[in-house]
Amino acid sequence: MFEYFSHLWQLFLLCPDHLAVLSIIPVTAFVTWAHVWMALRMVFYPIHFFGFHIGRLPIGWQGIVPRKAGRISGIITDNTLKKIGSLSEFLDAMDPDEMANIIGNQVDAQLEHLIDEVMHERNVVLWENLPYSIKRRIYEHAHKQLPTVLHDLVIDLTSHVESLVDMRDMVVHQMENDRRLMVTMFLKVGSKEINFIWHISALIGCCFGLIQMLVWFVVPWHWTVPFWAAVWGLLTNWIAIWMVFNPVYPHYVRYPQFFRRTTNRKFPWLVPVVPRIGTYNIQGAFMKRQEEVSDVFAKVVTEELITLKTIMMEMMYGDKKEKTRQIVKKHINPIMDTPLVRTTLQLSLGPKEYAKLKTDLIDRSIEITMVPVCDPAFNASRARKIFKMFRDRIRDLTPHEFQNLLRPAFKEDEWILIVLGGVTGFIAGTIHLFVAFL
To answer: Mind listing the UniProt keywords for this protein, alphabetically (predicted)?
Structure first.
């Protein structure tokens, strides 16, 4: 047997193209590694369209994820986020009573300034000439009423959040307005899988290069070099992406184990062990990391996507803001309708101006309430309250539900990446043919 292979090797060395044939394996591995890297970059970058237009026809490229941010975020919301929980659950977990106290303390400190500001806009002469004793009584009345009003308002908004905010619209609007956030989220959640696709592609390229080299001995035709390079380019991108998500469910196989990987991933990567029967889980690279990804995704979502700020911004300024105003009006108006305030202001301003004043006060109340809501520290404290709930529910997702956290990024226009691998492989194969074989 040894003599037979030795004879084949001697015949191979006599072949005039033997060095070129040997170069197939490293060239295929490198080209595969390079074009997969390029394909992965094209999934996420550039954030904004790069190119030009001929009429309405765009000539250029924009990353698949930022270009399809609205559609992809809608799929993630429908298939995953809505199964994790509702907005009312998230707000309940944020502790509405505590929120009302924190917001109330900050608004209370600016309450007199708010009243002065509104009155100056409506009738500065009247307000400046009004006796301070009357102003003082109005201030004291507002301070006294505010805690109860804000508490009831926050509880009311929390209980009606599902009718005031559409989670899907909120997420889609946010992602379309900040496409970089969409890319950042996917890169944080799938960083290990993206690196896995990139690096495993070189190994797949080596295997395909070996096959191509063996084919050369049977069909030593020059045209096969770019042809097979194109085929390997197509297959590599498809196989690499497939391996990230498949198999969806774990499949455990037993095998004789003589080495184990070092936990610190430093050299040496493998160390010998006493021979034994080991167990290996054959499952998609992303699917194996459900517990680890749950922590990362929960952190991203609770700190950047579904936050108190984003919910309140959508509630106060979104498509259903008029419905929110009606709830705010219901709670703010009692402050203005007490005998002292109503009589004093109606006599001073008149019924029409008094009605306009109430509208102004509602607008300014919304604005001033949003100040503490937009505070990063306040949002961080709310995020900590829902992080554990969010993380645990992601861990409880079925494998099919879990893969939808990352799968939409690759599923959208996936065929472009596969075709790109074939085109790139063909170009590289053609260059290899002219440089090494001709």
So the answer is: Membrane, Transmembrane, Transmembrane helix
Q: The tokens 């936050």 sit on which residue?
A: 307
pLDDT at 386: 83
| Residue 337 binned pLDDT confidence (cut-offs 50, 70, 90) | low
**Preceding omega of 399 cis (within 30 degrees of 0):** no
Task: Find the length of the chain.
Answer: 438
Closest by alpha carbon to 96, among 156, 139, 138?
156
Q: Can you tell me the distance from the alpha carbon of 113 to that of 366, in angstroms, rounded to the nearest whole number?
A: 15
Is residue 295 within 8 A of residue 160, CB to CB? The reply is: no
**Number of other CB atoms surrounding residue 313 within 10 Å:** 18
- Give the tens place of pLDDT for each residue, 279-326: 877 888 778 888 888 888 888 888 888 888 888 888 888 888 888 888
Domain boundaries along the sequence of the chain: 87-160+299-386, 250-282
**172 near 318, Cβ under 8 Å?**
no
Q: Which of 299, 280, 291, 288 lies closest to 392 in space, CA to CA? A: 291
Q: Is 178 helix (H, G, I), strand (E, B) or coil?
A: coil
Which tokens go with 179? Answer: 């496409």
Band of pLDDT at residue 369, cut at 50, 70 and 90: confident
Q: Which long-range contacts (CB under 8 A, 24 or more apart) does 133-136 make?
A: 134/344
| Res. 391: pLDDT tops 70 | yes
pTM of the model: 0.70
CA distances from 225 to 18, 19, 219, 364, 434 (A): 14, 14, 10, 72, 10
Give pLDDT, residue 278: 78
> Can you say how many angstroms the Cα of residue 157 is from the centroid of all Cα atoms in its chain?
27
List C-alpha distances in Å: 373 to 88, 309, 333.
17, 6, 22
* pLDDT at position 220: 67
For the segment 180-196, the average pLDDT, to the nearest whole number, is 79
Does the pLDDT value for residue 405 go beyond 80? no
- Supply φ then ψ for residue 432, to 5 degrees: -60, -40
Report the half-sphere exposure of 399 (CA within 13 A, side-chain side): 15
Q: Are 286 and 309 in contact (CB under 8 A)?
A: no
Closest by CA to 68, choosing from 390, 326, 409, 376, is 409
Under DSSP, is residue 250 helix (H, G, I), strand (E, B) or coil? coil
User: Following DSSP, what letter does each residue of 194-242 receive, concatenated?
Assistant: HHHHHHHHHHHHHHHHHHHHHHHHH---TTHHHHHHHHHHHHHHHHHHH
Cα–Cα distance for residue pair 402/394, rounded to 1 Å: 7
